[in-house]
Design a protein that fits this description.
Number of strands: 4
Strand content: 5-15%
CATH class: Alpha Beta
Distance between the termini: 25 Å
CATH architecture: 2-Layer Sandwich
Order of helices and strands: EHEEEHH
Helix content: 10-25%
Mean pLDDT: 97
Number of helices: 3
Structural class: alpha+beta
CATH topology: Alpha-Beta Plaits
Low-confidence stretches: none
Amino acid sequence: MPFIVTENCIKCKYTDCVEVCPVDCFHEGPNMLVIDPDECIDCTLCEPECPVEAILSEDDVSEEQKQFIELNSVLSREWPVINEMKDAPADADEWKDVPDKLQYLER
């Protein structure tokens, strides 16, 4: 079962997870990362690295976050692969505990 990047990543976009991924399944958008479910090997290395707990196993995604399963699949085909850690946005810490961030997702 692949891992999914959920709403907590929006406007935070920490890339700690990218550094540990052995298969380069992360893709970078303007203000969020996603995981390509076809590339993810379910190694679990990325999940504990996320400082905002935005990465979950597909089985653990709540009903409120289910739409992110499809978003990860779709956006990973549109956005480029990211395989090196980058600095988080300057205001990432201000966004990490903000709820209902889907409205801020930039495609």
